[in-house]
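Translate sequence into structure tokens.
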Amino acid sequence: MAVIEGDYKEVISKYTQKDWQPMLDLIPEVEKTREFGKIGGGGKDENGVLIMPYSIPSEIVCRFEEIVYDIPIVISFDWGSWSKDNSIIHSGNFDYDTIDIPTKCMVITTFARANRFVDGVLVDAFEKGQILKILRSIERQLS
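Result follows.
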């Protein structure tokens, strides 16, 4: 899992259309997908032990997560503090065309990293349409 260390804006600015293409190729599939994950667990097992619910992401969510680390667009920064009261993260109606691609990568990083600590964050971002909006915005900005 590769992460961008240091001057992420410089690194990201050097990416070509070819570098971005694996992620942009996901757009048609994301547009067609109706279920981005399911809830597993819940209830009790045969011994009466409580099984906590957990998120089971769909294949498209898993591929997206792999791609963002493969390119890489995941940035090493204090995403927890940055996202705390940030409307970019918490608003389902944010206009991603108003921010540059490196900032979009910060948003993606926040979803990807938070998902490692809070199960289902990335599935939720897909379900709310945030990931698709970001992907479309990146595609427009690259054109």
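Note: The CA atoms of residues 17 and 143 lie 9 Å apart.
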